[in-house]
Amino acid sequence: MHVLRSRLTLALLAAGLAAAPLPLLAQIEQVPASANQQEESWTINLKGADIREFIDQIAAITGQTFVVDPRVKGQVNVISSAPLGLSEVYQLFLSVMATHGFSVLTQGDQARIVPNAEAKAEADAGRPAPDRLETRMIQVQHAPVAELIPLIRPLVPQYGHLAAVTSSNALIISDRSANIERIEDLMRQLDQSGAQDFSVVTLQHAWVMDAAEVLNTAIARGQAKGTSATQVVADARTNRLILLGPPDARAKLADLARSLDSPTSRSANTRVIRLRHNDAKSLAETLGDISEGLKNQENSETTGRQSNILIRADESLNALVLLADPDLVATLEDIVRQLDVPRAQVMVEAAIVEISGDITDALGVQWAVDARGRTGGLGGVNFGGTGLSVGSVLQILQNGEIPENTTLPDGAIIGIGSDRFGALITALSANSKSNLLSTPSLLTLDNQKAEILVGQNVPFQTGSYTTDASGAGNPFTTIERQDIGVTLKVTPSINEGATLRLEIEQEISSIAPSTGLNAQAVDLVTNKRSIKSTILADDGQVIVLGGLIQDDVTQAISKVPLLGDIPLLGGLFRSTRESHIKRNLMVFLRPTIVRDGAGLAALSGKKYSDIRIIGNGGPDNGRPSILPSTPGQLFDGQGAPAVDLRQ
User: Fold this and answer.
1) Residues 271-311 pLDDT 10s
2) Which of 264, 266, 244 is nearest to 253 (CA)?
3) What span, in angstroms and rounded, lies between the C-alpha atoms of 601 and 305?
4) Which residues contact 485 (CB under 8 A, 6 or more apart)?
5) What is the DSSP letter of 401?
6) CA-to-CA distance for 464 and 142, rounded, in angstroms?
7) What is the rounded average pLDDT for all residues in the chain?
8) Which residues are CB-neighbours of 483 under 8 A, at least 6 positions away?
9) Which InterPro entries is this protein grouped with (predicted)?
10) Furthest-apart CA pair in the chain: how many Å?
11) Secondary structure E strands in 118-220
12) Residue range 205-231: average pLDDT?
């Protein structure tokens, strides 16, 4: 505990003080006493002030000694338009402490400020606080403030505080800002000139807004006959009617209100809403989260009935069933109307362009000399990497037959010689090019994931079990199938201004040519090229998602040292092979927003026209197309159009 004694005198609060004030002091101003007012007064307006500084100033004004608990922390917001006397300042101080969960316990000439146990329990329970707490003084002009206290007190939650300042005919309210605004609106209706009396009618069964509408209709008819003016104020949070006017008129309206407040077999309103665009199950989940917030807000601000909300989805009819209090049903209906709107669709077109080229040049000279019969010499040049070596040729000649598995390499092969000398020349020049164009496209709803796969489902061996040495057991092989081909996954989101956010997953996979589809499942090798990205694009804009440019240059030289480097003659002692492999892969996207049926029909017609031209062999082909002229005839046939069952 810290004992804080104010070292400030009341003179520090005077307007003409030359000393520099603290930041908080500039917001607490002393009002000079007038000739008709003996007691000094202060005007207090604080915003974001430290609560300990506020306690210091109250100690300086009242002369009270406060023992402050170390846990007393926070910021204070006080709004006051009328001057307050010494007792009113202290009453305001108590309200601020109660608002922030602290109690002021007076013991002799000292007062202890400690955390309020009840407020602490509410904080531990996680009481919702959608807006900040503040303390505000409301000046009442006409009605006696003491008569308004019983009427306003039920509107203040348990954690709030309400007090009357009878000397200045004002109310001090500590509560959330939103609820204080509601109370002020109600008091403006009650605080009318003429000093009218009022009556309060609490409804048990009828909804206060419906009852107020009936009473106001009755008042309008009564005024047409020259009756006295009467006013009806409805408080939906406590389900109460406040009647203002002469006693006789109030008595008649009270009797009418009680006659309307009769029990019914249904204490809540039921609505069945057929959805046109949204999904009932997903919307029911959204409304369930919203209804919890509405129910908590309703229960925290009222001391009346418990709010019950029931929301169910009928998937067979795509409808929502709402069961709740009438005011909450109206709120939920409005939310459903705003959410059940047509969703735009997005057509995503992808163009996968792959251009590859392979250029290979090879030249090799191999020879052999057998001079053992003359000079006793033997020599030769043999390169095994040329596909066919002179050594293998000599072996074939020695055996006198060609093996069945002998294959000749690509290119030209020239062989010359005799039984003592032989030369083999191989030459190859290859040039291959290939272009691959894939154009997958798919249509999906806004914020809805879609996927298209064009390919094959290929088996891959993941494990096997064989028999043991004795031959017992049940051998088996496990296979896992994977999709191989072109895959496009996209999730579009339409932003403001026709800008799209696209989450893209693009994958191109294939079986490596060295294995082929006829290979065993354990031997399969796949090539995979994938892109995963999130991009922004405008409606109809063509963008490049990504790509790969691969350029491989390989040069292999086999030669006899020294001899292979001799100009001109060195070609007889070496073999060269050069290859140039180039691959270009680019992926392009074009998203198009489809907002209505007309746009969807136009897009479908264009796509059908394109496929019809391709099926006909091109636009310049004079042959009749194998496809009908309109896409509708694919389903209706070439005869009469289908009957529209919607008529």
Assistant:
1) 888 998 888 998 988 888 787 766 655 554 544 445 567 88
2) 244
3) 53
4) 453, 454, 455, 456, 508, 509, 510
5) S
6) 95
7) 73
8) 453, 455, 456, 457, 458, 509
9) Bact_Secretion_Sys_Channel, GspD-like_N0, GspD/PilQ, NolW-like, NolW-like_sf, T2SS/T3SS_dom, T2SS_GspD, T2SS_GspD_CS
10) 151
11) 133-139, 161-165, 170-176, 198-202
12) 69
| Measured distance between the N- and C-terminal CA atoms of the chain, rounded to whole angstroms | 83
For residues 146 and 163, give the distance between their C-alpha atoms in angstroms, rounded to a whole number. Answer: 9
DSSP state of 84: B
Tokens standing for residue 453:
């796969």
Sheet with 110-115, edge to edge strand ranges: 2-4, 65-68, 110-115, 102-107
Side-chain-side CA neighbours of residue 468 (13 Å): 3
Angle (CA) 608-611-615 rounded to 5° is 135
**Average pLDDT of span 443-457:** 89
Give the number of other Cβ atoms within 10 Å of residue 348's Cβ.
Answer: 23
DSSP lists the bridge partners of residue 183 as none
In the 8-state DSSP scheme, what is residue 630?
S
- In order of their start, the domains of the chain are 45-115 (3.30.1370.120), 133-191 (3.30.1370.120), 197-260 (3.30.1370.120), 270-295+307-341 (3.30.1370.120), 358-432 (no CATH)
Strand-pair partners of 586: 353, 547
Six-digit token string for 587 = 């992926």
Closest CA to 478 of 459, 453, 452, 493: 459
Residue 307: both structure tokens together: 């709010």
Q: Which DSSP state fits 118?
A: H
Q: Are 394 and 368 in contact (CB under 8 A)?
A: yes
Q: Are 423 and 393 in contact (CB under 8 A)?
A: no
CA dist list (Å): 443 to 490, 508, 590, 593: 10, 20, 12, 10
CA distance 333 to 600: 30
| Integer Cα distance of 97 and 427 in angstroms | 100
**Minimal CA–CA distance to 155: which of 304, 293, 326, 331?**
304
Contacts of 276 by beta carbon, 8 Å cutoff, 6+ apart: 340, 342
Q: Give pLDDT, residue 450.
A: 92
Among candidates 127, 111, 130, which has minimal Cα distance to 119? 127
Q: Are 383 and 558 in contact (CB under 8 A)?
A: yes
